[in-house]
Design goal:
42% of the residues lie in helices and 18% in strands. The chain contains 12 helices and 13 strands. The strands form 4 sheets. It has a 7-stranded mixed beta sheet with strand order 5-6-7-4-2-11-10. The protein has a two-stranded antiparallel sheet with strand order 1-3. Helix 6 (200-213) packs across helix 11 (257-269) and helix 6 crosses helix 12 (279-301). The N and C termini lie far apart (44 Å).
């Protein structure tokens, strides 16, 4: 599925119109669309190229209940299940949790983007991915995936004019840095860039660069203090060990011409498509992130 350019305002308005107002506070939109919304002042009135609109149900304790209501409401309003892929079609009561499809729904009459539901992690000690079963009255079963650092992006979200919450750009940058401290070779299945499989780390760390490139210097200098608050609240027992290594993967990205070139491609086809960044410009942006935000956080942890 090829990413299309979509308007944050139009998508936020469409989602807000169909989801019950009393549940608006239960959803935090994350990803490219949230970044475009949060950086609207630095971007012209253009959309963002993406195919998925990730919506995190928060907190975890009510995620399944609220996810069931929201999914049912969307289906009743004419939204349709995205069935592509190995785990596309809804499961049943005998389907193992880790083989359940996520809730991925196309808006009525269109297939240019889809909404996907996720959940906050179950606790600060969750590691990796977890699936929670979401069963509909129709007998269709889905899974709500949650990831270790999703709680970072749902901490003190911003609010759109349409009444929906969305992750703050600096929170998404921190979550991506934490997720890729190990700089793993995980690929994005079915995707290629520069003639080779895409590496997840380069896409996500590239988003850190794109967000930083669009953030005014005065704002960038405040990231470190905001990160300290966020990580210490979300991981009260673990924050020092996490923060002490927060820049490990990012430094490897900046030190590798090959990886940074791939990250540049992601930036220039995504958030920076309206004004593509040069290679050296992104490396300089990365160095500013290290000195302004990463190193102060690491120092506080140690």
């Amino acid at each position: 599925m090829t990413p299309h350019e979509i308007s944050p305002h139009e998508v936020f308005a469409e989602i807000a119109a169909v989801i019950p107002a009393e549940l608006h506070g239960s959803i935090v939109i994350i990803g490219s669309l949230a970044a475009a919304q949060g950086l609207a002042a630095q971007r012209p009135s253009v959309g963002v190229r993406t195919k998925d609109v990730d919506c995190v149900l928060s907190p975890h304790v009510t995620a399944v209940e609220h996810g069931r209501v929201i999914t049912q409401r969307l289906l009743e309003a004419g939204w349709t299940v995205r069935t592509e892929g190995a785990f596309g079609r809804p499961g049943g009561q005998d389907t193992p949790d880790d083989q359940l499809p996520a809730v991925r729904l196309f808006p009525p009459g269109r297939s240019t983007w889809f909404l996907e539901l996720l959940s906050d992690p179950s606790s600060q000690h969750q590691v990796g991915r977890r699936w929670d079963r979401l069963a509909l009255p129709s007998g269709q079963h889905f899974g709500l995936p949650s990831f270790e650092f999703t709680g970072i992006v749902t901490y003190k979200p911003a609010r759109s004019p349409e009444g929906l919450s969305y992750a703050r750009p600096e929170s998404m940058a921190l979550a991506n840095l934490l997720e890729h401290r190990g700089f793993s070779d995980q690929i994005i299945v079915g995707s290629e860039i520069l003639g080779r499989p895409q590496l997840r780390r380069n896409k996500d760390l590239g988003r850190v660069l794109a967000i930083a490139a669009l953030t005014p210097s005065t704002e960038l200098e405040q990231w470190g203090d905001r990160w300290i608050e966020t990580i210490s609240v979300r991981f009260p027992d673990r924050w020092r060990s996490l923060a002490a290594t927060v820049g490990d993967g990012f430094r490897k990205l900046l030190a590798s011409d090959t990886d940074l070139t791939e990250a540049q491609e992601h930036c220039n086809s995504g958030l920076l498509a309206f004004r593509p960044a040069r290679f050296q410009e992104l490396r300089s942006v990365g160095e500013r992130v290290l000195s302004s935000a990463v190193e102060p956080l690491e120092l506080r942890a140690r």
